[in-house]
Structures are given as structure tokens and as C-alpha cells.
Design brief:
The protein is α/β, with parallel strands linked by helices. The chain contains 11 helices and 7 strands.
Length: 346
């Protein structure tokens, strides 16, 4: 398992949960789009695995009766009209209040039996986000026969390791859990399937504690079709990585660009300088102008990187203060519950 240390302020310590016990409210989040074949099975499985949890199904414009089936199986059903998994997850986190959140797809590919394994590190305050790792035990490769999915996952893992220095075993998994403070402080910007990548990069960049839990993956049952388009959604994921690289590591990005432009400027300009030293003439004036322009762009990129890096550090300080504020609110709520002074919710 992979774990990352964090500078986050820990909440008030509560007694460590016994094996299998999850102290606090658990919300199972199931974003759905046309999952009529599987949603009933998923809800029933999680009811058996986590009878104390509240199960939420957010229907994302399904046309096959997914919402009605989910309601008949006892889930709390709501509708999200904005198309895309990221939009659904954003609204879920806005609407639902719980101590622990377990997010899972409605396609019956993730085992409900692993739910407590994902939640226990959160309940024991050993992690802030846990990730259901499909790849370590080989079940994803055995069950998934869709071309390029494994290659795409490996590419995203490599890019995150190269940019952020964190070795994820499985970035694209739709099975993960996180605590209340993590859920309350993550800005969900992705509209679609990029949400898993955004959650992973956010957790790494903000130094949350991450733990990966190996799970047994199973392929979709017959008749159930994946909504993921390998190439178009893969491009969106790569675009998200590039965008977050710019947002979270601007100094690295713009320093790299500055280096490239300056090298090109030197390659273009050195022959001009050598020729001028030998003859006292500049016969290749366009090359000289191009070299100056490339060097100027390189210096400009470095300046942009310095400015944006200062802005990002300021934002990071504000984020840390916001996290501390949310932790303090959580402590206050716990003290009120312990002392019996909690105000009724209106």
C-alpha cells in the first residue's frame, strides 16, 4: 500500500474503531447514467456490506429507468441535469453531509465487500483518502478487455509521478473514499470523467494522506456498456493533467518552457555571433532577430513562472487556513455533541 504524509492538522482524537466498525455517518455516493441493468445489484450489495450507511444515487439524465430502480431498492435518489460525472460528484459533495464518503460507480465492477477496507483507514485517522487499487493483484487486466485502457492508466500514472513525484498504482479507479474535511475543501472543477484524475492530483498536491487498498475488479455484466470513450475521454484526462500542472506547478512548467526557448535561441544565435566575430558582419539578419525573439520569450516565460509561483503559494496558504477552519468547525461540533449542547438543525 502507498501512503503519503501530510501537514494537515488532525481532528480531535476519538477512540480507535474496532475491526469493521465505522464510527460516524457514512454516505455511499453512486453517480449513474443508464445503469438499469446493474444499479439494483450495486445498492443491494452495499446495503449488505454497509447496513449503517446511507446510499445516494444521483441520476444523470438516464433514459432506461435507472432512477426508478434505485428508488425501488431503497436508495436516496436525486437528479443532476448537468451531464458528466464530474458535475454529479460536485453536486453530491455540495448536498450531502457525512463523516465519511465512499464513491463507487453504478456498473457493478467494484466489490462492496471491500468497502470497510477503504473506510477503516479513514476512521482510524490513518488516511484522508483511500483508493481502490484494481491493478496490483492483476484482476483489472484479466477482466477488462477494452483496448488501450491499461495503457492510458499507465500513461497517467507516469505523468503524475514525473510531475508530482507520487507513485499511484491506480489513478483512474472509480472506487475511493475520503473524510469530511477532504470533501469539504476540494474544489471540483472537472465536468466529466476527468474527476478521478483531479481528485488524485489534488490529494497529492495538497499533501493529504493517501492509502491504496487492493481490490478485486470484475468486468461489467453482459448487456451493460461502458460510457467511457477511450480516445476522447483520454484526451480530456491528459488536458486536465496539463491544466492542473499549470495551476499547481507553474514555476516548473514555465521554467521548462523558458529553457526550451532559450536553447532554441542559442542554437539559432550562436552561428550568427561566431560569424560576426570572424567577419564583423551580420549577413543572416533574420536568424539574429529570431534568436533575440526566442531569448526574449524564454525570459518572459521565466518571469511568468515567478509571478504565478508567488500567486500559487499565496493560494496554498489560504487553502491551509481554510482546512484548519473546517477542522475547527468539526471539533466544535464534536464538543457540542459530547456536551449535549448541539443546536437542532433547521
Amino acid at each position: 500500500m502507498t501512503e503519503q504524509t501530510t501537514s494537515k492538522l488532525a481532528p480531535d482524537h476519538t477512540p480507535a474503531p474496532t475491526q469493521g466498525a465505522i464510527p460516524g455517518e457514512v454516505a455511499v455516493l453512486i453517480p449513474c447514467y443508464n445503469e438499469a441493468i446493474t444499479i439494483g445489484l450495486v445498492i443491494d450489495d452495499f446495503k449488505r456490506a454497509l447496513p449503517e450507511a446511507r446510499i445516494y444515487v444521483y441520476d444523470n439524465n438516464s433514459k432506461d429507468g435507472t432512477a426508478y430502480i434505485a428508488y425501488d431498492h431503497g436508495a436516496i435518489v436525486k437528479s443532476e441535469p448537468r451531464q458528466g460525472k464530474g458535475n454529479v460528484v460536485r453536486q453530491m459533495l455540495r448536498d450531502i453531509d457525512a463523516d465519511f464518503y465512499l464513491m463507487v460507480d453504478g456498473d457493478d465492477t467494484y466489490p462492496a465487500e471491500a468497502a470497510r477496507s477503504l473506510l477503516l483507514p479513514l476512521a482510524k485517522d490513518q488516511a484522508d483518502m483511500t483508493v481502490g487499487d484494481r491493478l496490483s493483484n492483476g484482476t483489472y487486466g484479466q477482466e477488462n478487455d477494452r483496448a488501450f485502457h491499461g495503457l492510458g492508466n499507465n500513461l497517467v500514472r507516469f505523468l503524475i509521478r514525473a510531475i508530482y513525484g507520487f507513485r499511484f498504482k491506480d489513478v483512474m479507479t472509480g472506487y475511493r473514499a475520503f473524510n469530511r474535511v477532504f470533501a469539504r475543501t476540494i474544489p471540483v472543477l472537472s465536468p466529466s470523467f476527468e474527476i478521478e484524475t483531479e481528485l488524485s492530483i489534488h490529494a497529492v498536491d495538497k499533501r493529504w494522506r493517501i492509502r491504496e487498498i487492493p481490490i478485486n475488479y470484475r468486468d461489467r455484466p453482459e448487456g451493460s456498456e461502458s460510457k467511457l470513450n477511450t480516445f476522447s475521454d483520454g484526451f480530456k484526462v491528459l488536458r486536465t493533467i496539463a491544466s492542473l500542472f499549470k495551476d499547481y506547478r507553474p514555476m516548473v512548467l514555465f521554467s521548462l518552457l523558458a529553457f526550451i526557448f532559450c536553447v532554441l535561441g542559442l542554437v539559432t544565435g550562436i552561428p550568427v555571433v561566431v560569424e560576426f566575430g570572424q567577419t564583423g558582419l551580420v549577413p543572416r539578419l533574420p536568424s539574429a532577430l529570431l534568436a533575440v525573439a526566442l531569448m526574449f520569450v524564454g525570459i518572459l516565460c521565466l518571469s511568468c513562472g515567478l509571478i504565478l509561483d508567488t500567486v500559487v503559494k499565496g493560494n496554498r496558504k489560504e487553502y491551509e487556513l481554510e482546512v484548519m477552519r473546517v477542522y475547527e468547525e468539526l471539533r466544535k461540533e464534536r464538543r457540542q455533541l459530547r456536551d449535549g449542547t448541539a443546536l437542532p438543525q433547521g
